[in-house]
Protein 1
Amino acid sequence: MSKQIKLFAVIALLALILAACAPAAAPATEAAPTEAAPTEAAPEETEAAPTEVAATEPAGTEEPTVAPTATFPPPVLTGGEGCDPAATKVTWFVGLGTGSQPNDVEKEKAWVDNYNKSQKEACVLLNVVFNQGQNSYDALRAMVAAGNAPDIVGPVGKAGRASFQGSWADITPLADAAGYDLSNYDPKLLDFTKDEGVLVGIPFALFPSFIFYNKKLFDEAELPYPPHKVGEKYDGKDWNLETFQDLAMKLTVDANGNDATSPDFDPANVTQFGFFEQWTDARGIGSLFGGGIPYDETTKKAVIPDSYVQAWKWYYDGIWKYHFMPNADYQNSDQFGKGNVFSSGNLAMSHVHTWYTCCFDNSALSWDIAVMPEINGKITAKLHGDTFAIMKDSKNQDVAFKVLSDMVVSPELAVIYGGIPAVEADRPAFFAAKDEAAAPNKIDWSVTEEMLKYPDLPNHEAWLPNLAQSNTLLGSFRTLMDTTPDLNLDDAIAKLKDDLDAAYAAAP
Amino acid sequence: MSAVNRAVLASERPRSGVSAYTRRQWGYGFLFLLPWLIGFFAFQLAPILFTIFLSFTDYTGNNEFKAGNFNIIGLANYKSLLVDPLALPSMGVTLKFALIGIPLGLIVPLFIALLVNSRRLMASSLFRTLFYLPTVIPVVAGTIIFNGVMNAQSGWLNLVLKGLGIADPPRWFTDPTWAGPALNLLTVWAVGNAFVILLAGLQSVPTELYEAATVDGAGPITRFFYITVPMISPVIFYNVTIGVILAFQFFVPALLIGGVSGNPQGSLLFFPMDFYREAFVFGHMGYASVLAVVIFVLTMAATGLIFYFGQRLVYYASGES
C-alpha cells in the first residue's frame, strides 16, 4: 500500500509538472513570430470590424477571433485634465470595436489631451473598456440602463451597433443644426453608415479586404508572389479561383514535407496552410463569390444567395476535402496562433481587412498584400466601414456632434484604427504612417485602394431583421462548417434558412 | 428580593413582557447584523425582486431604465418560454453536465483527500498545496489553459493519448459529443475547495473508531463505507448541495469556449448561457428575466429536494439526524 501511494505521488507530481510545462506546439516549419497577441474582441458572431473575439475554440472561427489573454487591462476613464472649466463634458466610449488595446489607449489619451486643449467648447472624457468578448458590451448596456449613457461610442461597425438597436441618435438633424455639409461625402458611403434608414454616424474609415501573404513561405516554396494589380497574371495564368486554389494547395504542407497536391499528403499532420478566411462569419465567406443578402425584402423571408451557397461549398471542401484551409482544431492550436492564424507565420495567405494590421507584428513578419482573385467572372473584396455614433440618451448631443465631426477627419485617429480615411486627400499621410509601422517591409498599399473599387454589394454587414440574432446564427453556421467533418451542407443550409426565417419573424 | 429591586425590574419590563435589557441585546444584535442585512437587501434580495418585476416587462436594456422605456406585458414573457426552441435543449445541456459533474466533483476530491490523508504519504502538505493550487487560478485563465491543453491538434492531452496508441483521440471542444464531458473534466481540475473540506472532514473522524473496527477484523473497504462515509456524511451533503447549485449556474467556461451560441452545435449552450445571451446579446431583458427566474426556482427546488431526502442519510454526531 505504501509503495502504491508513493507511486501515485510520483505520477501526480509528474502530471503537474507536465501540465505546467505543456508543449507549445507540434513541429512547425517556421518559428512563430513573437508578436503580441491581439487583445480586442467583438462579441462572438457580432461581426464588426475591426474587432476581435474572446471566445476561443469553435467560436474562434467567427469574426474576429483571437485567443483571449488570461488577464486584461482595467477600464480607463480620463478626468478631463486640461479642459476649459466651462466646457461641456462629452464622454467617448471605446470598446465595441477596435481601439481598446493598451497601445491604442495611450494614443487615444494623447488625442483627447490635445483635443481638449485645442478648443473650449467640449471636454472629452475617454472611457475605454477592454473588449474581451462580451464584457465591453455588458459595460455599455449597464451604463445605458443606469442613465449614464456615454455621448459618443466608437469606432463601431454595423454589427456592434446592432447590439444596441434603437439606441443611436439620428445624425442628420444634428448636422443640419450645426451647419455641417454631409453632401461632401459619397452618397454610397452615407448609405453605408445608415441603420434601418437612419444616419447614425459620419463616414470615418474604410477597411477594404484583400490577401495578406507571407513572403517567406512563398520563397521557401519557390513560388511567385500573388498579383498586386487587377488583371495581372499569376505565373502565366489568370488570377482566378482555380489558380488561387492550386496555389493554396501547393503552399499547404504536412509534417513530412508533402504539399496538399501530393497523394502522400497527410491532412492529420499539417504544419503549414495555404489559405484562411480569417475572422469573419458565414456572410463574409459567402461574399467571396459576390455580394448578397440572405433576406428578401418583398417576402420578408430568408433567401440564401447562390453566391453564398457556392462560396460555402468551396470553403467547406477547402477545409475537409482539399485540406488547404485549417479546420477549427488547427485554427485554435498553438501552432496556428490560437485563432490568429496568419500571425503564427504558418499560414501563406489570409483574406482579411485593413484593420488586421492591428493584430500581428507588422515589422517582424515578412509580408505584403495582394488583390483578390476573380471568381465567377468578377472580383469581390468585402468592405467594412466603421464610424463613431452618438447615443440617443446623450444629454449633450449638439456638443457631441461637434466632437464627432472633428473625430472623423482626424488623421491621427485613422492611423490608430488602421482604417483608410474616407477623405481621399488624407490617405497619403495614412499610408506613410503604416509604412513606418511595417518597416523594413515595403507594403504595396495601392492594393487597398484597388480593392476599394470592388466592394461586396449588398454588403455582408447589411441590415437584416433581428440582426443580433441573425448574426449569431450566421456565426454559428461558420463554426459548424469549421468543426464538422461529415456535414451534409445542403441540409445545413436548409436548416440555416429555417432558423433565419424564425429569427426574422421574431424581429421586433 | 427587596421592594426597591422589584420596582427597578418592573420599570425595565415593558408591557409586552420584553425587558429593556433584552431589547438592548436585540438592538446590539441587529446592529452587528446590519452590514450583512444591507448587503443582502441591496445586492441579493433587491436584484431578485427586480428580476421578477422585469420578467413582466418588455424592457430591452438598450435604454435607460425609466418609465416610458418599457411596458408591463403581463405573462407574455412566460408564454414565450413555452415556445422557446432552445429552452429545453439548454436545460438538457445543464442537466447532463450536472449528472456527470456532481458525482465527479465529489468522488475525485474524496479520492484525493483519502490519499493525502494517508499517514504513509510523504510530504502530504506539499500535495495539499498542489491539489488546492488550481483553485486559486482565475476561472478565465484556467479555461484558456485547458482550451490549449485539450486542443485536438496540439494539446498535450491528445498528444499523450496518441502516444498511448489511440490513433483518433477525441476532438474535445469541436465535437458536440465530447464538448460537454470535456467541460466536466475541466471542472475536475479545480476541485481544491471540495478536497480541502473533505480532507478536514476525514481528519476529524476519531481514530479510535478505526482502531476498534480493525480489532474487530474490518478491512479498509469496510472501514471506509461503515466509518468514514457516515462520519463525513455532513461534509458530503454540503458538497453535493453546493455542487448542485453551482451546476445550475455553470456558465463562464462554456461561454469562453463555445461562445454565446454554445458551439459546437449548441452542445455547450447551458441554460444560464441562454439567459445571458437573451439579456446581453439580444437585448431581451424581459424574457431573459423569465429564464433567470426559472434558474432560481429550479435551483431552489433541487436544493429543497436534497435537503428533504438527503438529510435523512446524514449522520450528525450531535444526534440531530
Protein 2
Amino acid sequence: MTRLLETRALTKRFGGANVINGIDFQIDTGEIRCVIGPNGAGKSTFFKLITGEHTPSDGSIHFLGRDMNRVLPHERIRMGMSIKFQIPGVFADLTVRQHLQLGLYRAKDVSSTSLDELLHRFMLEQEASVLACNLSHGKKQWLEIAMAVSLGPKLLFLDEPVAGMSVEETHATGELIKRLRDAGLTIMVVEHDMTFVKQIASRVSVLHGGRLFADGPLDEILGRDDVAEIYLGRKK
Amino acid sequence: MKQLELVSRGARRKRATSLSLKFLPWLVALGLPLIVDSNASGNFAYCLVWAFGAIGLAAMWGYGGILSFGQTAFFGLSGYAYGIIALNFGDSWITSWGSLLAALVVSVAAATLIGYMIFYGRIKGVFIGIVTLSITLVLETFMSQTAGPQWAIGAAKLNGYNGMGGMPQLTIPWHGGPLTLENTSFYYFVLALLALVYWVTRKLLDGPFGLTLIAIRENPQRAEMLGVDIRRHQLLIFVFGSTLGGLSGVLYTIWGSYITPSTMGLTSAALPVIWVATAGRKSIGGAIIGTALLVWLSQNLAVYGSQYALILLGSILLIVVLLAPEGLLPYVITHLRRLATRPQSNAVPEPQTALKAGRGSKS
C-alpha cells in the first residue's frame, strides 16, 4: 500500500472562525475511507479544500507526493482526483450517454466498450438516451458516480452518495462502491447513513468542530463512547 | 404488428422531414441567382455576409453561454483593417486575399487579448455583455473623430464619421486578366464560404469541444470537476466566434467598398443579438437562415424609412422572448416535425419521445 493523499495541519478560516482546524489526515491506496461527523463538523469544507474549490488558510495537501496548494482544481482532477457532489448537478441539456462521454473524452478513452460498460455497471442502460434532468433522484446519484468514475481516477470522493435513496438503492450503491474498490480504486466517502457506512467502510475518520476527532478501523471507532456522544448525542 | 409498422413509418417520415429541412435551404440558396438578376444576387450576398457573425454569436451564446455584444467591434476592426491594408498594398489578387487573411488575424489577436482579460479576469454573465458593448462603443466613438488629413495610415484615410471608401474587391487570376468577384460570383463565393464555416462549426460543436461548452454553460463548477479548463474553453470559443464577426466585417467592406464607424454603434451591436435570439441561439443553421431573412426584410423595409426595420425587429424580439424563448425557427421546426410525424388516430405514440428529445437543436 502506498500513501495516496496526506494533509498536514490543514486549516481553513472563514472570517474569524476556524472551520477546519489543523487536520492531519492520510489515506492509502485501495481503501474505502468514510468521513463522518455531525452537521457543521467541516466534512464538506474538508472535501472542497482537497479538490481545490477552497484555498487553505494554512497547512498543506499532498497528492501522489506532490504539494497541491498551487494546483488548480481542474489540474487536480487530471492528476487523478474525482468527485461526486452532495447535490446532483447534472447538465439539463445533455443525455446520460453524453454525460459519460464528457468524462471519457477527458480520460482520453472514447471507445464505445467503455461507455457500454459504464452504463451497464451503473444500471443506466435503459436511460442512455434520456435527458439527465428527467432521471429519478437515485439514478441521478448513480449517474454522478458514473461520471466521476468515467474519468479513470486514482482517488474517488463521494459526498453523500446515497442521500435521498431508498433502502434497496442504498444497498445496491454500497455493493457498487465495494466493486469499484476491488477494481483498484481508492474511495473517500462523506456519509451520514451509518448502516451504509458499516456496509462499505474499512476505516473511519470522525470530524468534529473542524478537528480530526478520531481515526481508525470501523469497529474500533464506532465502539468508542466519545464518538457516540458527539455523533449521536448519546451520554456515557 | 400494425402498431410497429405505424411507428416505423412515423420514424421514416421524421427522418425525411429532418433531411429536407437540412438541405432545402442550401438548394434554394444555390438556385436563387438563376431566377433573379445579377444585382439582386449581389443584394442577397449582402444578407449572407452578416450570417458569419451570427454563427459566431450562436456558438458563443447558444453553446458557451457567453452573451457578447462585441461582434460589431470585431466586424469594424477587421473591416477597417482590410481597408487599411488593401489600400496600402495595391489591388492585385494576391494583396486582396492577403489583406482578407491579415484582417482576420487582427480579429484573432484582438479577441485573444479581450477574451483573456474577460475570462482570466473572472468576468462572468451579464458583465461580459457590458464589457463587450463598451468596447464596441469606444471603437465607434474613436473612429468617428478620425476626420481630417492627420488621420491617415499611409494611403488609407480614415475619414471620421463618413467612413473609409475605395477598397478593392476580391479578384482571382483568370486567363485574359483577373476576374473580380462581384454580384453573382461574389454571392457564390460567400455561399461557399458560409457552407464551409457551417460545416467546420458543426464539426467543432458536435464533438467533445461542443459537449464541453454545453457542460460549462449548464454548470461550470461541475464541469471543472470533470477536469475541464473552463477559462481556456471560454477563451477559445470567444476567439472563434469573434473572428467570425470579423469575417462578416471584411466581407461587408469588400461588398460595398466602404466601412463607417456606425457599423460598431449601439444599434448595430444589438442587431446580431436580435437575429440570433429570433433564429434560436442553440441552432447554427437557424442562425444563418434567421439572419439572412431578417437582414433581407430590414433591407426591404428600409426603402420606406430606416426606422421601420428597427421597429419590426424590436417587435419580433418581444414576441420571441414572450412566446418562443428558444427562438422562432426551433419553435416552427418542432411544430412542423410534430405535424409530419403525428400518429394516426389508432397508432401508438413513440415511447419516451419527449424524454429523448435533446433541447439543443442541431439543425
Protein 3
Amino acid sequence: MADRRMNADIERALVALGASLEYPPTPSIAPAVVASLTTELRLRPGPPFPGLALWPRRRVLLLAAALVLLLAGTALAARLVIGAVEIRVVLTPATPRPTDVATGPALGDRVTLAEAERAVSFPVRLPPGLGPPTEVHLAEVPFGAPVVVLTWEPDPAHPRIEGIPWGTMLMELPAEEEPVAFKELLGSTLFRTVRVSGNDGFWISGPHDLVLRTSEGERRFLVQGNVLLWEEGDTTFRLETALAEADAIALAETVR
Amino acid sequence: MTDRVEDRPLEEAELIELAKEGDVRAYGELVERYRDVAFRTAYLITRSAADAEDAAQDAFVKAYYAIDRFRARESFRPWILRIVSNEARNRLRSARRREGVALRVAEHHGREDAGQSPEAAALDTETKEALLSAVESLREGDRAIIAYRYFLELSEAETAEALGIRPGTVKSRLSRALDRLRERFPADLSPREPMEAADG
C-alpha cells in the first residue's frame, strides 16, 4: 500500500534527521543532583518538607489526615497541606473576625491577563466556558511568584457568591516550599477529599477564613462560598463558587 | 550496605533498589546513565541549554523523592523522561516570551563524535534541513510526538509513558502527525538506488 510505504519512508527519514540533530554538549548533571540531594537530606533529618517533588508523600499525609478527621469528627485540630495551601482545622474562630472581603484592592494589584501571565512562573489557566475574566489581580507573596486571582461576574449558571460581588473566583498559586495561603476551618465546616481530573483536591463548604500571606503581611478573608482546592502540575488552584460540589468539580475540570 | 562484587557495574534495577533505600550515590549513577537523553529531551522542549540543564537536574531531584512510586517491572527511561518533560514544559511556559533556539542539523564533519551514524547518513543534509523545517512548522503536539518517537527513538510504549497518554493514542496521534508532515513535506523519500554504494 502506497500510504504505508510513504509512512515507512518518512519514518526512516525522521530517524535519520534525529540522528543528525545538533544538541549542546550534555552537562555533567549527576554531581549537582547528588550534591543537592545530599545537602537537602542532611539539612532535613526527617522527611524533607513537602515541596512539589514530594507529592506522593503529601498525598499520603493528606489522605491519612483527612481520614482521621472524618473518623474523629469535629473536635480535633489538624493541619493539611495541598500544594501552596495549608488547611488548618481550628476549635475556635480567630478574633477579631476578618473584615476584608475578597474584592477590589484587597485581592492585590489589578492587572491585565497578559501582565499576569508575564509576572508568574506558571501558566495561567482559565475555564474557557466562562469567557475572559472580569478582573485579574496579582497578590505578591513574600517569596516566589505572585498569586493570580481571577474573577468573573455572576451569571444565571454561576450565581453570586455570598459576601462578594463575583460569581466565580479562581486563585492560582505557584508551587512553593512553604504554603502561601491558609484556610482555617471550624470543626463544623464541611470538607472532604475529592478528585479533580485525577488529582487530589478538597471540597470545603461553609464559612471559613482564608489567610493569604502577602509581602505586606497576612491578610485574612472571610469566605462564605464553596471552595474547591486542587493541585495540578506546579500550580495549586482554589475555585470559589456558589455551585454545588459536582458542578464545581465539572467546572474545575475545564480549567486549562 | 550492598557489596559490589568484582566492581561490576550495577544493573539498573539494583541502582533503583539502592536509591529507594536512600543511597544517593547509587542514584547518582542512575542519573549519569540517563543524563544525555534527559538533557536532550529537555532541550527539544525548551530550546535553551540552560533551561534544559535546570529542567533535567530538577527532574532528577524530584524523581529521587518519588522513586518509591516507581515500579520495578517498568522501564526507568520513560518514567524519568516524563518527569523531565513536565519540568521542561513548566520552564518553557514561564519563559514563553523568550525565543528559543531553532534546532539545527549538525555539520557532519564538525561533530565531536566523529562521523555520522548509519541512520544519519541515510539522508543528505539538504533534505534533512527541509524535513526539519517541515517538522518545526507543525503544531506543538505533533512536534512532540515526532520528537519522542523518532528523534529520541522511544518505542510507542515508552512514548506513551513519557507523554502520559495511552499507547493507542500514540499510534493515532502519530499517524495524524505524519499525515500533516507529509502535507508540508511532499518530497519523495524513498530510499535511493544503490548506485553510489556500487561505485565505492
